[in-house]
Structure formats: structure tokens, C-alpha cells
């Protein structure tokens, strides 16, 4: 995943960094995601992509690829096996869309 879509000015980049490093903000986000999202100057498209867990759309909007994985971990928790945790699978499913099943079939075979 290249940086061709990365837009440093996208405010979701700031949100994810803040959630990653600020325990109080992360707790508030877990309790009321909508309230925290309203505190950031995000576009409605960014808010909707976060609400629906549409990581592919966030990538297309300009969220840094590293921060995509961080957001997945924040939203879904962490797993024990690299690449098989719920966050990793949600990220892969969102990014691959219709190609997900084929990818998974090739991966296990």
C-alpha cells in the first residue's frame, strides 16, 4: 500500500494519533464515538467512513496506511496472531472489497 493517497492535512490523521496516545480521549471515544467525532473538524465523509468502519474509503480520503492499522486496532482490539486478528481481518476485508474471498482462498491454499 503506497502513499499515493496520503493527505497529511486530513484531520482523521490527527484523530487517530490523538486516540492512540491519549487514554482519556480513547475512553471517551469508546463511550461515545459520535461525541468525540463531533469535536474534530472532520468532513461528513470522514465521519461516515469511521462510523461504518470503511477503511478503504479512509485510505482513499488520505488516511496514512500506518494509521489505518492503528485505527483498526483501536476499534477492534488486538489479536494474538499477526494478520489473523479481528482488526487485521476487518482492515483486509474493507481494503479488498470484492477481492477479499479470493485473497483468503489463495492465502490458505
From TrEMBL:
One of its GO terms (molecular function) is dioxygenase activity. Residues 13-75 form the Extradiol ring-cleavage dioxygenase LigAB LigA subunit domain. It comes from the Bacteria. InterPro entries: LigA_sf, Xdiol_dOase_LigA. Keywords: Dioxygenase, Oxidoreductase. This is Extradiol ring-cleavage dioxygenase LigAB, LigA subunit. It comes from Streptosporangium roseum (strain ATCC 12428 / DSM 43021 / JCM 3005 / KCTC 9067 / NCIMB 10171 / NRRL 2505 / NI 9100).
Amino acid at each position: 500500500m503506497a502513499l499515493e493517497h496520503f493527505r497529511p492535512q486530513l484531520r482523521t490523521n490527527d484523530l487517530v494519533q490523538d486516540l492512540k496516545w491519549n487514554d482519556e480521549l480513547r475512553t471517551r471515544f469508546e463511550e461515545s464515538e459520535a461525541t468525540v467525532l463531533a469535536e474534530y473538524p472532520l468532513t461528513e465523509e470522514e465521519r461516515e467512513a469511521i462510523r461504518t468502519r470503511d477503511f478503504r474509503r479512509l485510505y482513499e480520503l488520505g488516511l496514512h496506511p500506518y494509521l489505518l492499522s492503528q485505527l483498526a486496532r483501536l476499534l477492534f482490539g488486538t489479536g494474538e496472531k499477526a494478520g489473523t486478528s479481528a482488526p487485521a481481518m476487518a482492515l483486509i476485508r474493507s481494503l479488498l472489497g470484492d477481492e477479499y474471498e479470493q485473497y483468503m482462498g489463495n492465502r490458505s491454499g
